[in-house]
Design a protein that fits this description.
Blueprint (H helix, E strand, L loop, with lengths): L23 H11 L1 E4 L5 H8 L8 E6 H4 L2 E2 L1 E5 L5 H24 L10 H10 L8 E6 L3 E5 L10 E6 L7 E3 L2 E6 L6 E5 L6 E5 L2 E6 L2 E11 L2 E11 L6
Antiparallel strand pairs: 1-11, 2-4, 3-6, 4-5, 5-14, 6-13, 7-11, 7-14, 8-14, 9-10, 9-13, 12-13
């Protein structure tokens, strides 16, 4: 007899408010100004707990990465398999649809000859034709002393310029420390850092690689990196929603 491993169920319906209720004009303004924007309470506490509870279920994931083995920091993360859990499968194309106009404006401003299609499925088809067919949404887990070094999530030739991280754990109760950090490397200037405070269920949208900045002599390109500061206590789970797939 063949043993069939049961997958942990997750709720198919996202918490409120829905993505369409977000003021995307404010999101765009914040992304232009700082390279990041917060989506308040994108997921409900129940959604957060259900997604975090998937972490031990290896049948959901295609690979596990222990950061210390690769010099990435301390902590670990797992990449989901296709098909993605329903909440993530819903989030990914809906967020993409709202962010793609910003992505296309940014690439035009930076003089990058790339245009992203309106539908996420069409962009994924482009990735898959180039051999980028491994799903990139991931769950990250940190415990006391863990941190994530500054980095960029690129994975191949085709890169969507924005991504989303959603805090699944409750700060102050489940963990202490572990702040989300962004750095901006400006030409011929010192780098700028930004700490983004998040509550459980909040998401941060941020630039993956480069973003345009308006200067006195026109637009110029800055390089962005992101990471997580050292966890001082407890356990922290985060959902990462990346819109391009990996080689």
């Amino acid at each position: 007899m063949t043993n069939v491993r049961k997958l942990t169920p997750v709720p198919p319906v996202l918490g409120s408010p829905c993505i369409d209720a977000i003021d995307w004009a404010i999101v765009e303004r914040d992304l232009d100004a700082r390279g990041c924007a917060v989506l308040t309470q994108l997921l409900s506490p129940d959604d957060c707990r259900a997604l975090a509870a998937l972490y031990p279920d290896d049948a959901r994931f295609r690979s596990r990465v222990v950061m210390a083995r690769h010099g990435f920091g301390r902590g670990e993360y797992k990449y989901f398999n296709y098909p993605l859990p329903d909440p993530i499968a819903q989030l990914r194309p809906h967020l993409y649809a709202q962010l793609v106009p910003i992505a296309n404006r940014w690439t035009t401003t930076m003089g990058i000859d790339v245009h992203y299609p309106a539908e996420h499925a069409d962009f994924l088809a482009r990735c898959h034709q180039a051999g980028q067919n491994r799903p990139t949404p991931l769950l990250l887990q940190y415990v006391e002393g863990d941190y994530n070094c500054l980095h960029q999530d690129l994975y191949g030739e085709h890169v969507f310029p924005l991504q989303v991280a959603i805090l699944l754990s409750e700060p102050g109760r489940a963990f202490e420390g572990g702040e989300f950090v962004l750095t901006e490397q400006r030409p011929r200037m010192q780098s700028r850092a930004e700490v983004v405070p998040l509550r459980q269920g909040d998401a941060v949208v941020f630039a993956v690689h480069n973003r345009p900045v308006q200067g006195t002599r026109g637009s110029y390109r800055v390089t962005m990196r992101h990471g997580v500061s050292r966890l001082r206590a407890g356990r922290r789970h985060t959902l990462g929603v990346i819109f391009h797939d990996a080689k």
